[in-house]
Amino acid sequence: MRRMIVASLFSLFAALPAHADDAHHQALADGVVRKVDKDAQKITIRHGPLPDLDMPKPMTMVYRVRDPALLDKVQAGDKVKFQAENAGGVFIVTKIERAQ
Ligand SMILES: [Cu+2]
What we know:
The protein is an alpha+beta fold. The protein has 1 helix and 5 strands. It has one helix at residues 2-23, and strands spanning 29-37, 42-47, 59-65, 79-87, 90-98. The protein has a 5-stranded mixed β-barrel. A hairpin with a 4-residue loop joins strand 1 and strand 2 (42-47). It is elongated. Copper (II) ion binds next to strand 3.
């Protein structure tokens, strides 16, 4: 009996990382860069619907970036694919690349 409990606890914990990982594999969102502010480490992006972030309608907004180097990859006017996350109300771009 005890072994069974240990085994089921183990499978429960083994399942957790897979779920945490899913959150980081959202689809990349489409957007257009409006402004890059390297000094403030912010980027303004006009983007389509982002249901994962509770933004069902297209909008233009300012994001912070996880890594300032992301701002070297794009410039105003670029069509991009990007990924962002909500860190306690602050939206952070975690990934961005120019769309082909
Ligand atoms: Cu938005």
